[in-house]
Here is the input.
Amino acid sequence: MPAHIYIRTGDYAAAVKTNEEAAAVDRAYIAASGAHGIYPMMYYSHNLHFVAMCASMYGDYSNAAKNADLLVANVGPHVKEMPPLEGFMTIPMAVNLRFHKWNEILAMPQPDPAMKTATAFWQFGRGMALAATGKISEAEAEYKSVAAAEQNTPPDVIFAMPINNKAKDIMKIAEDVLGAKIAMAKKDNATAVTRLREAVAIQDSLKYDEPPDWFFPVRESLGAALLMNGDAAGAEKVFREDLDRNPRNPRSLFGLQQALKAQNRNYDAGFVEEQFRKQWKGEVDGLKIEDLA
Here is the structure.
């Protein structure tokens, strides 16, 4: 079955398996044929990207990180000659952000300054890690850099082939998500909710791709912010909306379960928890609602 069918039904483990098999075939073909150009840069890279993002969705950090590193090793030497490959260079940071690996993020080296999108994404990741670890003034400095990068990015620059969403839109989501993270660090949950709603609206406007050009469903963070702000019913609505778009997304299942518990709907919460435990491959009891924010 094609991997995109697994994604649309929420079977992320099957999507990973299918793309791992495809990547292995690609490696054998490239080694035997000496293929270069579009095939190894796009088709093989696409399979590695798929594994990294789908493994991230269901909580398998080690596999996600391994394939993100393979992806960067594959495309990194060719970005200057094929600039649309630059979006792939953000994937190791995306994986670490997905799992809140704050120390690892702060240790990641700065990209080549010529890669403006990758550099802005690196600054975004650092800002998220700094805000999460209580270094608010330093996070705000990174926020200013991300906002400036978004303002200075020409509207025709694309983020990644072949769907060609605009880098400016991706950066605006990053700006809003980071702004929300800083607001939450300041205990200003209302501002965080506003910024996340703005990010969701932009994400909804992006052209559809698999995996998506923005690396996680922002509704996860919006639902968490609403729940942490005391709006359990609003959080439930947002998590259900995400599950309509991303069936069986384990983080949204967890958020929905927490929102139902907060409304004393324990029977419904128990049913959702069973679904979450079936889908999540990470540490079940270690996940907290703050991990979605």
Summary: Residues 230-293 form one domain. The mean pLDDT is 91. The first helix runs from residue 3 to 9.
